[in-house]
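Case study: FtsX-like permease family protein.
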Amino acid sequence: MTVLKTSLRSFFSHKGRMLLSGMAVVLSVAFVCGTLVFTATMNTTFDRLFAETASNVMLAPAEDEDRSAFEDNPTSGVPDTVPATVAGEVAAVEGVERVTGTVASTSPVAVDPETNENIGPTTGAPTVVTNWSDVELRSMEIAEGEVPGGPGEVMLDGDTAEDSGLGVGDRLRLITVFGTHDATITGIADFLVTNPGAAIVYTDLATAQEILLGGEEAFTTVYVDSTGAVTDEALRDAVAAVVGADTYKLQTAAEYIEENRDEIGEILSIMEYVLLGFAGVSLLVGIFLIVNTFSMLVAQRTREIGLMRAIGANRRQINRSVLTEALLLGLLGSAAGFAAGIGLAVGLMRLMSLLGMNLSTSDLTVEWSVPVTGLVLGVIVTLLAAYIPARRAGRISPMAALSDAGMPGDVRAGRVRAAVGASLTLAGLAALAGTASAEDAAGGSGLLGLGVVASLVGLILVGPALVGLVVRGIAAVLLRIFGPVGRLAERNALRNPRRTGATASALMIGLALVAGLSVVGSSMVASATQEIDESLGADYIVQTANFLPILPEAAQAVDGVEGLARVTPFTEAEADVTTPDGAAHEVRLGAAPADYATDIQLDVLEGDVADAFADGGISVDDAFAEDEGVGVGDELTVAFADGETATLTIGAVVSGDSAFYPAWYVSQDTLEANVPAEALPLPLMLLATAEDGRQDQARAALDAAMEPFPQMEVRDQSEFKELIQDQVGQLLYMVYGLLALAIVVAILGVVNTLALSVVERTREIGLMRAIGLSRRQLRRMIRLESVAIALFGAVLGLALGLAWGAAGQRLLALEGMPVLEIPWPTLISVFVGAALVGLLAALIPAFRAGRMNILTAIATD
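Here is what the predicted structure looks like once written out:
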């Protein structure tokens, strides 16, 4: 009981310090709990969507074995189908109440003719064109107008109608594989469940079959509803007995829901792991803050601890007292973090709504494991962080404490720590250097991971030993120009190397990640730019905005552009390749006319690429050729997806180092000879080259030709480079935003350290004020001390980040990105930003120090 009372008294007497330390726990637990609640809510809403829309048995084409509710159509633009006659056969099965056939496709483009804009989502979700049926009434309700009744009539989902400003009576243009179709909007349908973000356009069944299937009487999905007299499994087996167990894909409602839940889970798991990863970074940073807080509180209570030991308290009781304070901090911080996590989850849901996925807070799912996870995580982290200060407090002898003597083992422990840290740092740097000799990215990734962890832990341990060297260097350049005040700030930063090192380490981690990712991102952009300059011979690249296949009508429009010397379509196809000795490989083939070898300068290592585009020729990548012992002149058996099997002769061996262009190629004629016309993949890219001296005219004509197709984008080489730079930049900005959480925690650590340091030096500050130090000089001294600590962390962080980034780039080089680019402007900005962080962190401690009463400060014991 005495221990508890002592702990409570100490805890509440340092409320401000505990609040700052608790913020690290709150932010970290909030990130973890918010991520878990958000992903659970997403799963709940999609489970509800799938459950509402599923029938007892679902029948789909067998060719689409791995299909999910969110997967795009085949690259031919025409979905796989089930003959309409199958629906009649299934309807006769005992136990079947109703059979509904539907047609849906995600390849069409929906355009507002008034604005000539694509009304589909730009966030990755598809535009779905499907027929209206009773199945839709499970998830939709007609809010306005009526269902489409024939050709030229469509109905639009309410979210898309609102976003695009369209309504009943407005015109809509649909562009499909089979041409352009004009229609009038006759109705608006609202979602009764979560809108997954797609734009939905409804037609009648005959129109859907006409514009999506070319008039084929077939369905893409058949919904089979039971009378309830048999189980779903029994009904599925009965249907299979009629239509063939292996002929079509048959699923019960439960199997359908489970499959799509897994698909959504794979997508969400990426987001979940990323968010939890950054939560882990903030937890790691928070540990330093908590360690520093309790170390300084223990140091300030040294005499108090000595008195407690003198009157009979043993080491265990002292240790327990400090850990009890940590337990209180962990409990309160975890509880607040859990509440903040709920708010974070709601915020993420609001963000998803802005991106087109309208998640309802009524589906908010908080599983029992979430608060338990947050509580356990917060408490364990806090106790672990406080253990070392608690152990040191318990080891203080009464006489040493009463005489303010330090711990005899501190110097020896510091040397051991520095030696271990230096060894780990060198081992980590050696592992990072080892990535340069890695033969493949998979093997090098293990060295990279080992190097990152070892160098980080090592630098954290050796950090206090580096304080003297680095801080003196920073002081010589920056602090000493402020005269005596600058020298005082330097000495304060050097006074306790362990404290300075721990405070700076929190900032070091975040800045190391920023620097490392900046190097990787800049190297990716530089590598892409170099490859475009060296290999791209065409003047213009024509693609869809969302990188989906190009619809035939748009491709035909490009072919007729005046001023173009040639237009080269590039297509990709899947195939199974078998070598002469029977080894089988799944590959993705590029297919193009022979002009492609002029538009793209391929790195040919053996043979002539023209032979690969000749009739019956194929090119292979160098790794495949070396591993399988094949070369120019050897024959391969190639089984084209949805097509025939052919024997092709290797005409060239091409370097597989390119990150943008494949090494496997066949000619477009070879692809067309082996794949039926209805299954031929659509081109993914058109390479256009202008006639000599007519670049400007050709570009203007090309832009005009693409005007009716708002999904298409035309880029010259410089614009193509900007696209890559923007994509990498957006990814980095998102990562930097998440890393800001770790930076915030690090700032709290600097604030806490300075605040406790000011309290610790109260009498010293009073004496300095008494001999003439002004309030302004005092505040400047504290600000400069904070800047020195922050820049110390920045120097270590940037150096570590450069090592990480350089090692990461070596792995990118194995994937075709050979250029190492150091983003000096970004790194300089980060360094300057660290100084600003130091200034901001010192504002409150400096202000409080300046307000001290001189006599009261001098009288403080």
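For the exam, be able to explain this: The chain has a mean pLDDT of 83.
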